[in-house]
Design goal:
This protein has 115 residues and is mainly α. It starts with a helix and ends in a 16-residue tail after the last helix. It has helices spanning 3-20, 29-36, 40-43, 52-67, 69-85, 90-93, 96-99. It contains seven helices and no strands.
Length: 115
């Protein structure tokens, strides 16, 4: 293979990788909801404590929300929508920040996500 062909092939692969890799954007609710599924038994009052998987998943969302305002707003809007769609025990939900060591406190369906 000639030097020109190798350089062209390498350039092509770099451009292809850039095209194929998704751009960093705001997290979507469809990506958030699956992370909440391990918290279902706790939030629906079927379990006395959140599972380790539940806490791990929401800690990852918490970290994302702390580093990106657009992601924080998207997470907040998704959570408030989930709160309104499912029979969640809000008193238990309010315990999650303490039980899972979270910094954000999105535990109310009526919270203003634009603040």
């Amino acid at each position: 293979m000639t030097a020109f062909t190798s350089a062209w092939l390498m350039s092509f692969l770099v451009v292809l990788a850039l095209i194929m890799s998704p751009a960093r954007g705001v997290i979507q609710c469809g990506d958030i909801v699956p992370k909440l599924i391990p918290c279902e038994s706790f939030d629906l009052n079927a379990s006395p404590d959140p599972s380790a998987e539940c806490c791990g998943n929401i800690q990852a969302l918490d970290k994302l929300a702390a580093t990106s305002v657009p992601d924080r707003k998207a997470i907040c809007k998704c959570l408030t929508s989930v709160f309104k769609s499912f029979p969640i025990d809000y008193n238990k939900s309010k315990q999650l920040p303490q039980l899972c060591n979270l910094t954000i406190k999105i535990t109310d369906p009526d919270i203003n996500c634009n603040q």
